[in-house]
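A note from the maintainers: we've had questions about how concatenated examples are separated. There is no special marker in the raw files; a new sequence line simply starts the next protein. For clarity in this README we add a label.
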Amino acid sequence: MSARTIAIFNQKGGVGKTTTAMNLSGYCAMLGKPTLLIDFDSQFNATVGLGVRHGRDETIYHALLGDKQPHDVVRRTYLAGLDIVPASSDLAGALIEMVEVSEREYLLRDFVESVRDQYEYIFIDLGPSLNLLTINGLLAADEVIIPVQCEYYSLEGIAQVLETLDLIRENLKHPIKIAGALLTMYDKREKLSREIAREIRRRFPYHVYDIEIPRSVALAEAPSFQKPIMLYAPQSSGALAYEELAKELIGETTPDPRISSFYKRAYPEELEFDAKKVSEGEGFPTEVEEDLVFPEPEIEIPPPMMLVIHEHEEEGETENTFPARF
C-alpha cells in the first residue's frame, strides 16, 4: 500500500484550506481509507481544531529538525482511521534553521516516504504564504487540491497558484499534478457566488470538483469544539458537502458528464448562445434568463454512517473505542 499524497494549497488566506484538510481527511477515514493528516502550517489550526494532545517536542518540527522518529510524532485522533502529525509555533522558526540544512527542500518528502506504506491517503495542510515550508509540502505531495473562495479576488489567487506549480515542475523537476479546484464558501443565494463559480468551471484548465462547499455556521463552529464536522454536526450542509467530496475524490461517485458540460458552458455573457448547444436532457433548463439559477436536484439522504471514535482517557495513554451512530 502506497499512499496517495495530496497537498491542500492556495497562496491566498481564508479560503478554507484547513477546514478542507480536516474534514476531507476525516471523511476519507470514515469511508474505510487509513488516512494521515500532516499539519504543516505554523499557525497549527488543524492540530487545535481536531483537539489533538501532544508533548512539546512531539510535532512535525521535531521530526524534521530534531531527533524524533515518525512514530514519535504521529497521533491518533478521536476518529478511527485518522491520524495526525501535529504542528506548533516552533514550525515558524524552522524557516531560519532550514537555511543551513542540505537538501532542505526535501525534508518533508523524506518524512512522508517513511510512513507512506502505512496509509492510503496522506493530506498536507499548507499555510497561505509561499516559503520554504510550502515548497517542502509541494515536493512531498503527488497532487494538490486548490480551495477557491467564491469571491472575485480568488480568481487572482488561482493564477498565482498555477504559476507557482509551474515553477515547481520546471525548476525542481517535480511532476506534481493538480487534482482539482474546490469551490468553497459558496452561497447559492448570491449572484456573485454563482457567477464566480460559473467562470471558474468554464475557464479553469484542470478539473473542478462537482460539489461546492457552502457557507456553513456549523463548519465555522466545529473547530471551537475541537471536532471535525462529522462529529459536531453530521447532518449539516457543510458535513454533507465534504462527505460527497470525499466520495468523489476516492472514486465512489461517478460525475454526470452532462452536468459538467453544462457548467463549463454556463457563463453569463454567453448563456443565450451556449445554452442552445446543451442537450435537452431531463432536468436541464431550455430557456435562458438573465440571471440563471440552476434547479436544485432531489437528493436522497443517505443512511447514517457508522463512526468509530476514540475516547481519550484523562490520565494515561489508554484509549477505548466504541461505535456512535448519527
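[label: protein 2]
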Amino acid sequence: MRTTRLLAGTLAGALALSLTACGDDGGGGSAGGGGGGDGEAPRIAAVFSGTTTDADYTFLGLQALEQAEEDHGAETTYSESVLVPDAERVLREYVADGYTVIWTHGSQFYDATVAVAQEAPDVVFIAEQDTEPADVPDNVWVLDRNFHLAFYPLGVLASAASQSGRIAYLGGVTLPFSYSEVHAVEQALADTGSTATLTSVWTGDFNDPTRAQQFTSQLLADGNDVVLTSLNLGVVGAFEAVGDAPAGALMTAKYTDKSNLAPEHYLTSVLYDFEVMLDEILTSIEDGETGGYLGMSYEQGIALQTPQNVDQAVIDQVDQVVEQLAAGEIEVERDVTPVE
C-alpha cells in the first residue's frame, strides 16, 4: 500500500518546470521499529527531489518502492520535490508517523539523513552518497552510486564513435560526483590512447531544458560531435538541440532509456536500477543488519544500454570494457578534483 501527500509550497515551482519538481509529505500508521527485522513488514518512506513522472531519477525510485511492496510486503509512501532545507523536517515527520525505514533518494539529502538518524536510532535510514563516508551512524545504510564507474565506458565509446575527435560533457551543477564523471572519461581516453579532446561544461541546473538546449547547440557548433549528458529534465532540451544537428552528431543519456528523444542521434544511456539495490538492503535489514555500505557497479545496479548508430566493432569494444569493469580488471579512480 502506498500513500502520498502534496507539499503545496513547492507546487508552483514544479509547474514552472513542467516536470521534475513537486512535493509530498507522506505519512500515517503506527510505529514499527527495527525496519522489519522483527518479522513485521517494513513501513518505508522515501524522500525524492523530483517528481515520479520525470521518466528519470525519481521515477526509478518509485519503481524500487513498488517492487519493495511486492517483494517485501512493504507499506510505502513518498515525498516529491523536497528541497534540501526542508529535508530534516520531512524526515522527522516520517519518524513521528512510525515509518521503520526511511530512504533519501539523492546525495544532497545525506547530511540531513545522518542528522535525523542520530535522533532516531530505532529507525533505519538509507542514504545515498558518492563515496564511502566515515562516521556513519549504526542505523544508516549508505548506497554509493559510483557515477565514476558508470561514465568510464562512455569515454571509450565517445572516443570510438567521434568522427571529429572532439567530445563534450554536459552537466547540470558542479558537484563532486559530476567532477568524478569527467575525470573517469579522461581516464578512459588516456587508458585507450585516444587523442580525442574533451570539453566539459555545466548549465547550472539539472532540470532546465532551455539552458541545456542552448549549451548543446553551442557545443555542436564548436565541432563536438559526441555529447555525454549528465542531466535530469534538462536532457530533453539537449536532445532537442541535437535533433537539428547534421548526421553523425551523437548523444548519451543517464538513468533511463531516452532513445525516443532523438533516435538518429542517440548513442546510449547508463541505466540505473535501484530496485535490486533496495531489495538487497531491505533483505539485510530483515536479517538484522541496521546499517552498512552497498556500492552500485556493473555487476549490480548499473548497466550500459547497447550502443546505437555505431558499428558492431565499437559495440564489441565497449562490451569488453564493461565486462572488465564488472570483473574488477579495470580500476577507475574516484577523482572529485574540481574541473577548471
